[in-house]
Amino acid sequence: MSEIMTTLEKFLSRSNQSKEIQKIILACATSSKEIYKNIRLVDTVKDKSQNSSGDNQSPLDISSDGLFIKHLTQTNLVKTIASEEQQDLIQITSSTQEYFVAYDPYDGGGVGDVNMTFGSIIGLWSKNPIGKEVGDGLIAGCYALHGPRCTFVISFGEAPTIFEYDQKQDVFIMLRENIKITPTTKHFSPGNVANAKNDPKYLNLLQHWISSGYKLLYAGALVTDINHILMKGQGIFIYPSDQKHPTGKLRLLYEGGPLGLLIEAASGKATTQSGQRLLDKKITHTHQRETFLLGSSQEVDQVIRIMSDSK
User: Fold this and answer.
1) Digit-coded pLDDT (tens) for 97-112
2) How far apart are alpha carbons 301 and 311 in whole angstroms?
3) May I ask the CATH class of domain 187-308?
C-alpha cells in the first residue's frame, strides 16, 4: 500500500535531488496534467499553421507549449527553454539559476487528432548543452503519456519510475518503480516502414523480424512506443534514415536525450542507426535530427549488425 500511495512529491523529496530540481520536475508534471485536462477542451486537429520544423500545428500543440512555458517560467529557476514548437531558444531573464529544459509538448500529434495516445517528452539539464554531447549535464529524462490514463515517467539515471495521475486527489501516484528492460525481445516497433522499398537493409531487417515470429507493436507515436517497451519490459524501436532525412527525422535534443536516458536507465540501449550512443552525440543546434534505435540491448546490437551488413 505504501508504494501505491507514494506521490510524485514524496518520491522527489526522498531523492537526492535538490529542492530546485524537484520544483522544476513538479512544474513539468503540472504542465502534463493540465494538458491531459485540455484534451477534452482544445481541438486536436491540425490546421494550416506550422511550427519551426514545418510541421502542421493544432490548437493543442500551441496550448501545450504555452503551459510548459508558463509553469517553467514561474519556477524562476530555468534560464533557458527549448521547445520543439519554437524556432529559437527562450531565455528567462527572471531566472536565478542556469537550468535548461527541452521538451516536445505534443509528441504523436499525427495520431492524437484521431483520439489515439500521445504525450510530452521532457529533458532537464544543469545548463545549456548546445555545442556539447547531448548527455552532458543531463539530469533527468521524463515523459507524460495521455491516454485512458495520464502517466508520468521519470529517471534521474536510475531505473525509471512510473506515476499515474489521480484526478480525485489531483496528484500523481506511484504505479511502478525499478523498471527494467530484458536484453532480448520478440517485439518490434518500426518507424517509416514505407522506406523499406528504397532501403534493402531495412527491408531485410523487417523480413528477419517477421520470419522469426516477432510481434509488431507500433503506435505511430514515439512516446507511446517507448512507453510500450518500458511497460512490457522488452522491445525495440527504430527510425532509420531515408532520402528525405539522410541524418534521421527525430530530434536529438527534445527526444533523443530524455528517452535515451530513460532507456539506458532501464538497462536498455539507445543508439543511432550506425551504433553510436545517442547520449554521446554532439548537439549543434536545437532542431538537430538523428536516427534512433532504442530498446533491448542484445536486439539493438543485432539490428546494428543487420543494418550495417554490406550484402
Assistant:
1) 999 999 999 997 777 6
2) 18
3) alpha beta
